[in-house]
Design goal:
It comes from Enterococcus phoeniculicola ATCC BAA-412. Pfam families: WxL (PF13731). Keywords: Signal. InterPro entries: WxL_dom (IPR027994). This is WxL domain-containing protein. This protein has about 230 residues and is mainly beta. The chain has one domain. It is about 10% helix and about 40% strand. It has 1 helix and 14 strands. The chain has one helix at about 1-30; strands at about 65-70, 75-80, 85, 95-100, 100, 110-115, 120-130, 145-155, 160, 165-170, 175, 180-185, 195-205, 220-230. The strands form 3 sheets. Strands 1, 2, 4, 6, 8, 9, 11 and 13 form an 8-stranded antiparallel beta sheet that branches. It has a 4-stranded antiparallel beta sheet with strand order 10-12-7-14, with no helix packed on it. A two-stranded antiparallel ribbon has the order 3-5. The longest helix is centred in the first third of the chain and has 27 residues, at about 1-30. The radius of gyration is 36 Å and the shape is elongated. It starts with a helix and ends with a strand.
Length: about 230
């Protein structure tokens, strides 16, 4: 009887110890580890930028007043005004303002910037007037002016308000001289995604002192320059 009783006691003690140990671990309840991470990566590319439609004049939809540039990407100058010209007789003295028209006889001008990078880049569009040729020095001090300068968004050729205020202009009264004049720029902290248009009306050549300008043919250019300063998206 004694030989049979002792193993039974030993078995009971071992069972009690095992149950007690399990109870201690269950009561603690602290997860280890408590966090784990699964990496996620994504390579995203923009689709082709596609064609650009200059602003459409409802009265003459088949003759845009702008020339497209060779832009193919998502950021750059999209279109600029057609060549401007004038024929006039000079006054004998003093300042003279001569109206300019483009090659299809319109007095409205538009320049467009495509920025569909969907970032918060900082950029500025400026304009500068330069004259070339043997008679260039006679045009020193001249300017090209414009009225009703506006910043708008071009959506498939239709100009409308810039909804999020991401692009603006301070050139409501335009004056382009031999030093760069800012005409269109982004607003800090705003995301751009569109074709942004600066438009003005009634372009004119302003000669400050006609008595210093001889008769002749004069050739010059308005240079539109887009300068970008990338910032963190």
């Amino acid at each position: 009887m004694k030989k049979l009783f002792m193993p039974m006691i030993t078995t009971a003690i071992l069972a009690t110890c095992t149950l007690g140990t399990t109870s201690v671990f269950a009561a603690d309840g602290t997860p280890d580890p408590s966090t784990a991470e699964t990496p996620v990566t994504a390579e995203l590319e923009l689709k082709d930028a596609g064609p650009i439609t200059p602003p459409i004049d409802p009265s003459d939809p088949n003759n845009p007043g702008e020339d497209l540039t060779p832009i193919t990407g998502h950021f750059g100058i999209a279109y600029i005004p057609k060549p401007l010209s004038a024929t006039s007789k000079l006054e004998n003295t003093g300042q003279q303002t001569i109206a300019l028209k483009n090659t299809i006889g319109k007095n409205k001008c538009n320049v467009g910037i495509r920025d569909t990078l969907r970032k918060k880049n900082k950029w500025v569009l400026s304009a500068q007037l330069t004259w070339s040729g043997a008679n260039a020095s006679f045009m020193d001090g001249t300017t090209i002016t414009g009225e009703n300068g506006q910043a708008m968004e071009n959506i498939a050729g239709v100009l409308g308000n810039i909804q999020n205020g991401e692009v603006s202009t301070s050139a409501t009264s335009l004056s382009i001289s031999n030093t760069p004049t800012n005409v269109l720029e982004t607003v800090d902290g705003k995301q751009t995604n569109g074709i942004y248009n600066y438009g003005f009306e009634n372009p004119s050549l302003v000669i400050p002192a006609t008595e210093k300008v001889p008769a002749g043919s004069y050739s010059g250019n308005i240079t539109w320059n887009l300068a970008a300063t990338p910032v963190t998206p």
